[in-house]
Fold this sequence. Notes:
By secondary structure, the chain is an alpha/beta fold.
Amino acid sequence: MPTVSDSSGRATLRMVAEAAGVSxxxxxxxxxxxxxxxxxxxxxxxxxVRELGYxxxxxxxxxxxxxxxxxxxxxxxxxxxxxxxxxxxxxxESGVDVVVGRVPDAAGTGESAAQNGKxxxxxLKASGREGIIVVTSALSESQVDAFDRAGLPLVVIDPLNxxxxxxxxxxxxxxxxGMAATEHLLSWxxxxxxxxxxxxxxxxxxxxxxxxxxxxxxxxxxxxxRLVMHGxxxxxxxxxxxxxxxxxxERPTAVFAASDATALGVVEAARRxxxxxxEDLSVVGFDDTVLATLATPAxxxxxxxxxxxxxxxxxxxxxxxxxxxxxxxxxxxATNLVVRDSTGPTGER
Length: 349
């Protein structure tokens, strides 16, 4: 059977199948990431796609029907919902649909990290995705390489790691936010200020900790390593860190927590220890999600402009898709301190 292209002269899926020596259904399955395709067969199909320059019909669309992917490590957190709101708002304004999902996990599939990244990128490309936004997740070099090879522009928001400097990112002024939170506690007279941080590998968490340290050092206070702890950005780890901090012989009088959920865990640890917030322990969170205002007492926080971060990420991705040159690959939006009821003067005299 002779190979044929479409009316525009572009390669067709039938051409890919013939070049790879497989049936048309097999070629389709391989491009859609089906698990019932042998690795060698999938490789032949992918090689044929590259050689022929094949693009799925959905990927050629412009205007209505354009689609990008938005993936999270945690789909149900208030943080994620705020970012989602910003991304989808900007998408609607630009006529772009957003498909929401989670970062695929290679564990248990028998795939290497490189294979996982390649299959993920190929599935997105075959489904007509024009680009991808990844939120608060760790990406491997092989995954970033796979997006590059597939021609899928990538933007990351608050990544848990920085796989390479040229990856486009959107975040907030985490360092200055950490400094503002700590300076606020210092202004109330606190000197034993603890830091309940996120994962040690999280770039945003590291910046918040550096701001915390800078504020203490500027005030002439030596950082006590026993007051610096790390865990996941969540309530359970906040509770565990809070319990450990409050069990110290010389406990802190204030805690700067690296997320709202972490801060709520610390507040619960204080309640279990018979301590009042803020009379016995002041607590500052970071994010300003709905959790902060629903908490009792309402949380003093460093506010991240999460919806704006989502909007900027989408607009930046669309610029990359259009082939525009960015002025900067790293955008940081301003944070600001919001004072509520969880902070007050130290009870020490």
